[in-house]
Each structure stands twice: as C-alpha cells, then as structure tokens.
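Worked example (supplementary).
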Amino acid sequence: MSEAAAFEPIGKRERAKAANRDAILKAARRVFAQLGYEAATVRDIIRGTELASGTFYNYFRSKEEVFEALSDDGARRFKPLLRAARERAETFEQYLHDAFSAYFHFLLEERNVGERPLDERQPHVRTDTPEMIAIYEEVRLSLEDAAMRGLAPRIDSDYLAHACIGLAQEVGAAMLRRTPPDADAAARFATAFVLRGIEGAARND
Amino acid sequence: MSEAAAFEPIGKRERAKAANRDAILKAARRVFAQLGYEAATVRDIIRGTELASGTFYNYFRSKEEVFEALSDDGARRFKPLLRAARERAETFEQYLHDAFSAYFHFLLEERNVGERPLDERQPHVRTDTPEMIAIYEEVRLSLEDAAMRGLAPRIDSDYLAHACIGLAQEVGAAMLRRTPPDADAAARFATAFVLRGIEGAARND
Amino acid sequence: MSEAAAFEPIGKRERAKAANRDAILKAARRVFAQLGYEAATVRDIIRGTELASGTFYNYFRSKEEVFEALSDDGARRFKPLLRAARERAETFEQYLHDAFSAYFHFLLEERNVGERPLDERQPHVRTDTPEMIAIYEEVRLSLEDAAMRGLAPRIDSDYLAHACIGLAQEVGAAMLRRTPPDADAAARFATAFVLRGIEGAARND
Amino acid sequence: MSEAAAFEPIGKRERAKAANRDAILKAARRVFAQLGYEAATVRDIIRGTELASGTFYNYFRSKEEVFEALSDDGARRFKPLLRAARERAETFEQYLHDAFSAYFHFLLEERNVGERPLDERQPHVRTDTPEMIAIYEEVRLSLEDAAMRGLAPRIDSDYLAHACIGLAQEVGAAMLRRTPPDADAAARFATAFVLRGIEGAARND
DNA sequence: CATGAATGAGCATTCATTCAT
DNA sequence: CATGAATGAATGCTCATTCAT
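After joint prediction of all chains, the assembly is encoded as:
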C-alpha cells in the first residue's frame, strides 16, 4: 500500500477524501438554498450525501464551517469576474455595468444550483446564501478601489458602497422573481441609476 | 394612589399584564436583532425577561406571533410618518427626503430600545427586524404611489422601489455603525442619490 | 347578610356552591367519556364549565378526586337497583336476570349522558367510566352475597364474580355497539349463560 | 472469541443494538403494565432502562410504536399456542380447555417478565397489556372458527366471544392475584363454566 | 369565594457531537 | 478513515397548581 502510494501520490484515499468533501459541499449548498442557513441542520446535509453522519466531522467542524467553505468557494468563483471588470474598465460606467452584469448573471447561475425548487416558506428572513455574502464584501472593496483609482467621484465611499450593494441585492432579488429574469436589463437599470445617483450625491457633499 | 384609582380604574392585574407583555416584546426585539428571527428561540426571549417560561404562552402563541406583534407595532409607529411625508410633499425631492429622514430617524430610535447589546456577532444571516419588514412594504407602496401621482418619473417602479429599499437598508445600517450616527446626513445622501439616479434610469428606459 | 342567612339557611352562596360543583361534575363526566380519564385534563373540565380555572380547586383537589366523586355518584344511582333486584329475587335466575338487566339498562342510559358523539380514537385502553368502576365493585359484592345466601351454588365465588363481571363488561360493550342495542336480549343471554355455567363450574369443583 | 466470531459474525454493535432494543421493550412492558398505556410516557420507559433519552428514538418513533412491537411480540408467541389447540382439539371441551390453559399459562409467564413491581396502584384504568390486546382478537377469531366448524353450538357468536374474553380476562386477573396462582385450576373452571354456559345460552336463543 | 395570570416541572422530540468498532 | 449508535442538552409547548386581587 505504501508502495502504491509512492507511484500514485494522489491515491484512492486522497481522491475519496476530495470526493467526500465535495459531496458535502454540494449537499450543503442545496440544503442552505432550500431551508436557509438557520433551518438547515448538519443532519440535513449528510442526509443529502451517501456518507455517514460521523464522516461530516472529518471534514468540517460544524455547520458554520461548511458555510464558510461555501462562501470561500463562491468568492473564489466570483472574484475573478469582478477583477476582470475592474481591469477591463476604461470608464466608471463600463466598470459599473460589467460589475452589475457579472453579479446578476452570477445570481442566475447560482439559482440553478439547487435543483429542486426553492422552498418559499421563509417568511421574513433574508438568508443570504454563502456566495452572496462573499460577494458582498468583494463588491464593497471593488467600489472603494474604483473610487480610490479616481474612476468614481470621491464622495462618501462607505455610503456609496452600501448603496450599491443594497441596490444590487434588492434589484437582483426582484430580477429573479421575474419571468424570464433578464440580467442584462437589470444591469442596465442599476448602472444608469448608480451612475447618475453618484453625481447627485457628490454635488450634495 | 386612591385618587389615581378614581380616574384610572386599572388594577394591579391589568398593569402587570401590560408590563409583562411589554417585557416580552422588548426582549423579543432585542433577541431578534441580535440573533436573527430564525436563530432566536422562544426560550431566548423569555430568558430575556424575568418571567417564567410558561408565561410567554399567556401572551403569544409562538415566536411567529411575537414577531407579528412587533411588526404591527413598528408599522403603527412608522406609517403615520410616511403618510405625513407623502401628504406634505410638494416636490418629489421633498417627499424622498422626508421619507428617508423619517426612516433613518426611526432606525435611530429603534436602536436605543434594546438596551444591553448582548452578542454582536450576527454570523451570516441578515435578519431584518420586524419593524423593518413592516416598513419595507410601506415604503414600497409609498414609492409606487408617488410614481402614480406623477411626482416621480414613470420608470420601472418595481426596480425603483427595490433599489430605494435596498439602498435605505444598507445606508441605514452603515449610518448606525457611525459615531455619532447622523440621520439627516444619511437622508441627504440617499435623497440626492435616488433623485438623480431615477433620472438616469428613466433615460435608460 | 348574617340575618338573611338566618332566614335562609341555604343561601345564594350555598346554592351557587352546589351549582358549581354540579357543573364541574357534569363537565367532567362528559370529558372523561370523550377523552378518557388519562387524556382528560383539569383544563378540559373547567373549559366545559363557565368557571375559572382556580375555582376547580375550591371543589376538588385533583382530577383524581372528581373522578372519585363521579364514581360515588354512579354507585349511588346504581346500587339501589342492584339492591332491589337482590331483595325481589326468589330464584337465583331471577336475581341474575334483574341484575344483568339493571346493568345493561344502566349502560344504555349512561351512554346518552355525553351528548356529543364519543371520540372513537382510543386505541387499546379500556378506560372504564367512573360509574362502571363503582358498579364493578357493587356487582362483585352482590354476587358474593347471593352465594352466601344460598341462592347460588357454593362454588369458587371469587372466580364466579369475576367471570360474571368480565362477561357483563364485554357483553355490555358489545351490546352498545349494536344498532339498536337491546339490553333485554343481552340480559337474557348473560343470565342463561351464567346460570348453566355455574352448574358446570360447580360440578367441576 | 475469534472462534465464536467465525460461527457468529455478529459484532459488539449488533449485540448492543439488540440488547438495547430488548431493554426498551422490557421496560415498556413493565411500565405499561404498571401505569397503563395512556399514563405511561416515553420518559417513563427510558427511565426504566440505562439508556439516554435520545436513544429511545433510535429504536421506536413513539410510545405507540413500542406498544405495537410488544403486541406483535405477544401475538407471535401466543398465536401458535392457540392454533395448536384448535388443530389438536377433537371436542369443543378439549379445545376450550387447551385455549384457556394456554392463555392462563401465558399470563403467568408474562407476569414474571417485569421484575420490579414498582407501583401497584393502578387507579381506575384497566389497561390491557399489549399482549392481551393482540390475544384478544385471536381468541375471538378462534371462537368464531370453532363455532363455524360445528364444535360449538351456533349461538350468538359475537356475544359468546365477548363473554369468553371478558371471563378469561377477569378470571385470569383473579388467578394472578392468588398465591400461588394455579393456571390449570383456572382453566378447568373457565372451561366448565363456558361449556355449560353455552348450552344455556343456546337454549335461550 | 371566584378569578385568571404566573409558575415551573414535565413531556415529546430533535440534533450536534463523540467514539467504539 | 468511515461508520452509525449513544448521548444529553436544548427546544417548543402543556398543564396542574398557587395566589394576589
């Protein structure tokens, strides 16, 4: 066995481990999307895999930890998009549009991850999915960065970032409720809104 | 005391009942704000009072019901402010400013209700407080009403409403984190942002 | 007030007290019949009256105690019937028949006390109503008395009494399930069965 | 131990599981007998074992389910006895005697299962043990079968079955209270009683 | 006495987590 | 490492009972 390992640095064990980890993450994503973070239980997650309950704890110490892993994953996939938008942008308008567009398209893709239809009985809690939370922070940083690089007027960047984030979240949610959802239209709306909004806010400063 | 009783034939019982109900509501407000609706338990709420566990059920049938009571309460106190803003407004700008101002001041007042800020780490769930949820709908209706009355340009009013709400929420939360929080400044920011933002979005339509 | 009491030895108070007690007993009978002794709660009983919960404890110390009061009541009404049968009887057959007949008719009457239809979801527990338990003992004593007075053969009177009681209970229950229930037919069946049964058992001794 | 394992590939886990299940069933039997089905709580049952409360739910979903398991168990052990009696019987008398004898002996065995007789006061509820209920139906069917096969006179078989069952229950209970209990004597009494009783009832038809 | 709110023990059940296998 | 049974703390909720009014 040790010999085999010598020839096969990523052995069965390693592959199984990675597969198990992935299975848990995948199940967790689905479960979080369906039940919300709070309502979801570790049992729900492992029930969504073929693994035994104890196995969960070989990979994650708690529900919280899976959640963070998912967030990291979401961030890892979304960050490059944002960064690309930032690098590509020659005008602030273009940056804004690319960023919003990336976000709304990301939302659309994410929505399709949890195969079963979302359970709509979540009365008043906005349980952001792990990915959205990761994005949240990334968006904020991007906006502050843009402001610093002179692309955006130097207004109250904290309020600006929050305004954009709140706007993106709510407009994104509204977009998802439409049939069919049109991420590009939503991005155009948000871009135009924010672009002029900033001017107004700047004058007000 | 006997004199007071002549004018106010309210016995100890009634007073105790009202006090208990208030204590539960107050504790619930705090608990919901700190842990989020989903994570909060009925026991968390009663633990936040001096009452026994069974007493909770003399006043509310469930966590849901306290939540609704809080929402109603919040709505009852906030709606008049919004309505006044609507009636008083001669320009859309004035309406927006009054509404945002009312909202941000409302947030400030609310914040001071839950005295001891037990445990500030709200991990990943953005639980809107009951009051905010009640307000949420009211704000949306106000905006649509304003649009219909011709005060606001006739753009995608659904996206507009959501944009304003998201913006107000996030900017409001950011405001609360500042020391000292300045509701008027936040209202000016939001008003100017939205006023011009709408123009941009309208042109984009 | 004390004067009034002098002229009116059974004053309003006393009448109210008796009425309350009766109201509780009546409600209890209904509740026990519908839910069974175990499932019934003191709250169920007081809910069946116009009284407040605390008032219950002015009359009875517990559910157990109401139950006993009901038993006593049942016994008080059934005992005379049995005694009459005993005194009237010239033959053992006649005694048996009168006793069974009294019992089955008693069952029929009792059944009509709980106005609402019985809740049939009582899977495997034979919760005898308080009255039946009282009767139980009375029947047993009557039979032993009859044996002692020479009306019945002197066989194992303990077994005999139990045989009759078990028989009466089950046949009575079966009778109640028939439409229409015929107490007289059941009494004839039981009488004939027991009369000859005893002979067999006696010979066997 | 390794040898035994070769013949019996049952690990500690399996043995522990079986032992736990048995412990729960044993405790449940005792608790049901002592408190009655309705009054018994799941906690009473687990308190009667060395297990933790949650463990109960690894084996049974509810009190009801343990009860059914006990019933099945009782029936499984008693039914063959009854069937044997039925097949072996050449006369109705023989059948009756074998059946009663089987029943009374069964009661005796059962009684010895629940070791510590915790709390003998069963206030007013005649809870049949799960086993008796299972038997109940079997007895009834046996009697109807006997009647159909011509072994018993064709009288009101419903009343007959109930008469026998009630009689067997009460006489059985009385037998258990005697020291020492004599199942054979009880069976003789019951057989003789029923045999002649039927004749009486038949004539009465 | 009647009232009915407060009390807190108790119950069924779930669940994260551990650990022997 | 994987397994899955055992654990017992925690939860929502009910209820008998008390006691100030």
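Two points are worth noting when inspecting this output. Residues 3-203 of chain A form a domain with the Tetracycline Repressor; domain 2 fold (CATH 1.10.357.10). Residues 13, 16-17, 20, 51-55, 58 of chain A lie near DNA strand F (CB under 10 Å from a C1').
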